[in-house]
Write a structure and sequence with these properties.
Blueprint (H helix, E strand, L loop, with lengths): L1 E6 L3 H12 L4 E5 L12 E2 L8 E2 H12 L5 E4 L2 E6 L4 E5 L3 E9 L3 E3 L15 E2 L2 H4 L7 E5 L3 H10 L5 E5 L9 H9 L3 E4 L2 E8 L4 E8 L5 E5 L2 E4 L3 E3 L29 E3 L11 H22 L1
Parallel strand pairs: 1-2, 1-8, 2-5, 8-19, 10-17, 11-12, 11-17, 12-13
Antiparallel strand pairs: 3-4, 6-7, 7-8, 9-18, 14-15, 15-16
Helix pairs in contact: 1-2, 1-6, 4-5
This protein binds flavin-adenine dinucleotide and NADP nicotinamide-adenine-dinucleotide phosphate.
Length: 304
């Protein structure tokens, strides 16, 4: 029986495990992949205090080193369900179940797909969602980046170190990205912007992407352009499917909590990107991890 089971080893879950284990709680941290979460797919992080600039995977590694110093037990597993028995909970993975007195959900979210023809067909053959992972394959190539948020613009800038040109395709005439990121992108000679434009189709041959079909949403004009790669950054979807039965998610699938990170089920907490909130960042994930790690201690004290 664990005191607390943390699901997801991104910055939120790792911080919750650190706080809870440092309070002498018996902590299990379950992760389905490499520890670090979305940080593993992030090029440069410039807004995490303590570092003027650090690569996402390096920050992930540094956090993970710290997590294990107070006895957190790590397990690999894909969580499929949480069963609430009141003062105890069962966390069900594909091939094993774990018992805990409290659970902290920190499963984050994933990139959203566009759903255009060619997207699935050319995934891994010119279509990518991760500049850090795939950017280096496109030296001297012309890339298209779809989206106008922080991810699209920041990762687009990152791609210019490899690509000959990066064309950002945005459906409106104004970016959503933070102003400082916009300014950098506008000043970068390798970047260009197609406004009021959507991607309609990704085309290619049996080997890889060869082109894109674009539509101007104001004029209705459709154009075909040659392309070597397409990076898609059109937002995020919560990873909450395993928790839907608990009734703690809203209509869009994000988990709702109070300001102590507790859901409406006593002893079940949610932190980081998976929560309904406005600012999805490493700093906020870490902050919420600290709150939940501490709150769970209080909860267990009251339970005893
Ligand atoms: P995540 O990082 O998503 O981690 C969740 C973890 O849960 C993952 O490891 C996942 O494998 C695991 N998991 C999910 N489901 C299950 C399951 N069923 N069973 C077991 N494990 C599961 N933020 C910044 O502050 N600065 C930046 O510069 C920045 N750049 C970004 C660039 C990109 C391209 C992206 C996509 C995001 C960026 N962000 C940035 C946002 C930041 O990465 C996130 O806000 C942060 O990682 C959220 O942390 P988290 O722990 O809540 O979730
Ligand atoms: P986002 O902020 O939701 O932006 C998604 C972008 O994709 C928007 O510009 C949106 O257009 C566009 N889009 C959505 N659906 C589309 C569709 N069907 N067709 C065409 N375009 C579409 O997502 P994000 O950029 O991935 O950022 C997610 C979170 O991570 C944010 O909270 C962000 O601040 C954070 N993040 C932070 C940093 C950083 O701090 N440096 C870096 C990356 C990410 P509209 O603008 O028209 O809606």
């Amino acid at each position: 029986m664990y005191d607390v089971i943390v699901i997801g080893a991104g910055p939120a879950g790792m911080t919750a495990a650190l706080y809870a284990s440092r309070s002498n709680l018996k902590v299990l941290l379950i992760e389905r992949g490499a520890p670090g979460g979305q940080m593993n797919n992030t090029a440069e992080v410039e807004n995490y205090p303590g570092f003027t600039s650090i690569m996402g995977p390096e920050l992930a590694y540094k956090m993970y080193e710290g997590v294990n110093q107070f006895g957190t037990v790590n397990a690999y597993g894909i969580v499929e369900e949480i069963i609430d028995h009141g003062t105890t909970k069962t966390v069900v993975c594909e091939d094993q179940s774990y018992e805990g007195k409290a659970v902290i959900i920190a499963t984050g979210c994933v990139h959203r797909k566009l759903g255009v023809p060619g997207e699935d067909e050319f995934a891994g053959r010119g279509v990518s969602y991760c500049a850090v992972c795939d950017g280096a394959f496109f030296k001297g190539k012309h890339l298209f980046v779809i989206g106008g948020g922080d991810s699209a613009v920041e990762e687009g800038i990152y791609l210019t170190q490899f690509a000959s040109k990066v064309t950002v395709v945005h459906r409106r005439d104004e970016l959503r990205a933070q102003k400082i990121i916009q300014e950098r992108a506008f000043a970068n000679p390798k970047m260009e912007f197609y406004w009021n434009t959507v991607l309609e189709e990704i085309t290619g041959d049996e080997i890889k992407v060869q082109g894109v079909q674009l539509k101007n949403v104001q004029t209705g004009e459709v154009t075909a352009e040659s392309a070597d790669g397409v990076f898609i950054y059109v937002g995020l979807d919560p990873l909450t499917e395993p928790f839907r039965k608990l009734g703690i998610t809203n209509a869009q699938g994000w988990i709702e909590t109070d300001q102590e990170m507790e859901t409406k089920i006593p002893g079940i907490y949610a932190i980081g990107d998976v929560r309904e909130k406005t600012l999805r960042q490493i700093t906020t994930a870490v902050g919420e991890g600290g709150i939940a790690g501490q709150q769970v201690y209080q909860y267990l004290q009251e339970l005893a």
